[in-house]
User: What shape does this take?
Amino acid sequence: MKQAENMKQRFLTFSMIDETLKLKDKAAIVTGAGRGIGRAIALAFAREGAHLVVVSRTLSEVEETAAQIGALGRCASCLQIDVSRKEDVANMVKSTLRQFGRIDVLVNNAGILGPVGPLVENDARDWMETIRVNLVGTFLCCKAVLPVMISQRKGKIINLSGGGATFPRPRFSAYAASKGAVVSLTSTLAEEVKDFNIQINAIAPGAVYTRLHEQVLNAGSKAGKKELDVSKRAKETAGTPPEVPADLAVFLASDESDGLTGRLISAVWDEWRNMSKERIEEIMSRELYTMRRIDDVFFSVQRRNSGTNVKP
Assistant: This one.
């Protein structure tokens, strides 16, 4: 109890520091925050004034993240959480409310690569574990925080997509299926809660070099030549800096993105840095940044030297 009171006091103290910060005094949860993209997002949030609960299945990693957030002058607590366990997720939400009294932002970043290789060779238990962590974990976290956000009539949820969500990714069927489902969940849930001033979007982070790439390289020929080349290139060049998707997460968590919901935004390729309120209104009036079946009836693609004028 004393620790919780101290956290609340620091929370109030820092509320008077800087009015220009994009996430000033917002209370955020970031899952999978022990390394890679999750840690980068947590630190970016802290730099913009947020206070955080950072969670991971590996306590030592998330403790280091919390220490770095504390060094930035923000409140942070760390929890050892398995997002695929309902009880763990419930404790995560209770802990956040005990410390901050509200939940403004949830980032569902926790995820695993799952089995690599042709589906017929995949272990069924490993395949289903990938779905449990990547998809069910996202579902459980959303389900747990939404009653809080609905009562607040405000909130932001950011889900992490990944390779294979919008195109075939052979030899990574579990990961691709789980991430495609996360994008579909994002758009569906966004429609359910839009009347409560809650926005839910997904991020395509780009080829950030993380432990998942290391697992691809370790898989060798099972991953296939194309995937091995991508991971080798990411290792050699360090890939997309994790700060790029982290900056996009800040935008989606901030008031700057108000009104934008149910969309899949690419951290690398989409023009989100200059997304004005007018542009958001235009996006929401069309089917931009969504997954739709292109059939030349309801949805078409503009091609060079073609007479197709229907825009998605």
Q: What stands out?
A: Confidence is low (pLDDT under 50) at residues 303-311.
